[in-house]
Design a protein that fits this description.
Number of helices: 5
Helix content: over 70%
Order of helices and strands: HHHHH
Oligomer: single chain
Radius of gyration: 38 Å
Distance between the termini: 129 Å
Shape: rod-shaped
Strand content: under 5%
Largest sheet: none
Structural class: mainly alpha
């Protein structure tokens, strides 16, 4: 009779542990379904593609400096040519006016280039902050997963110990039936746990695919925006250059 009470109490404890595990473990595993390394890889790929799609600002700056140097050389040549003409002051005034107009154009180009450089630096800072945050989230998820694994191992050891104790005490047929019922319940629980894990993995893969598609859309939209802005800027620069060239030609052709 005394042994029977011990067995029944052990069985009650095992039932309580089953209830606790069925309540805690699924929610804990659900918390671990967080895209971490996939998000980090996607953010890095987005950063690389954005950098590849942006124009080379250093090359633009070098081209602007070359244009400025060429303009100064042309100005000096035109200024020297004015001294060989009869109306020197009028010629110099026209050359200097053209020089001021060209300087204004170069000033606008320099301002646009400076703005592009500031935007690129701001984008780089935002990307670095995003990568840092994703890395921190990945580390936190890894720590939570390790803690959950430790808890699971402890509970499994407790279950094995309780089962061993109950099996030792269960010598009568009724006690053996109780042990078998416990094993069946544990097997059913393990099946449910594996099903929950499989469902969690499918959900993680689905979220990772959604992140990848969203990142691809964002990258395509950013590339399209850069191309549109580049074309608009080229059209504006060409229009300004044509206007300046027409004005310069008109000054050169006009009678002195």
């Amino acid at each position: 009779m005394f042994i029977h009470e011990i067995v029944m109490r052990s069985f009650s404890l095992l039932c309580v542990s089953f209830v606790l595990m069925s309540t805690v473990l699924p929610s804990a595993y659900a918390q671990l379904i967080v895209p971490t390394s996939e998000q980090l890889s996607a953010a890095q790929a987005q950063n690389e593609n954005l950098n590849a799609g942006q124009p080379d600002l250093s090359e633009r700056q070098a081209a602007l400096e070359r244009h400025r140097a060429e303009m100064e050389r042309d100005y000096l040549q035109q200024e020297r040519a004015c001294y060989s003409r009869f109306l020197v002051n009028s010629c110099l005034a026209k050359v200097r006016t053209a020089r001021r107009e060209q300087h204004a154009v170069l000033r606008k180009e320099q301002l646009a280039l400076d703005e592009a450089e500031r935007a690129a630096r701001a984008q780089e800072r935002r990307q670095q902050a995003t990568e840092k945050q994703l890395q921190q989230e990945a580390n936190a998820a890894a720590r939570r997963a390790e803690e959950q694994r430790a808890k699971t191992r402890y509970l499994e050891k407790q279950q094995k110990y309780e089962l061993k104790q109950m099996q030792r005490a269960a010598s009568a047929p009724k006690r053996r039936n109780n042990a078998q019922a416990y094993i069946n319940k544990q097997t059913a629980y393990q099946r449910k746990l594996e099903a929950a894990r499989a469902q969690g993995e499918q959900e993680r893969q689905r979220r990772a695919e959604n992140v990848r598609r969203f990142t691809a859309k964002q990258r395509a939209a950013e590339l399209h925006r850069v191309k549109v802005e580049r074309r608009q800027q080229e059209r504006r620069q060409k229009a300004i250059s044509d206007s300046s060239q027409n004005g310069l030609n008109a000054n050169i052709i006009s009678p002195q």
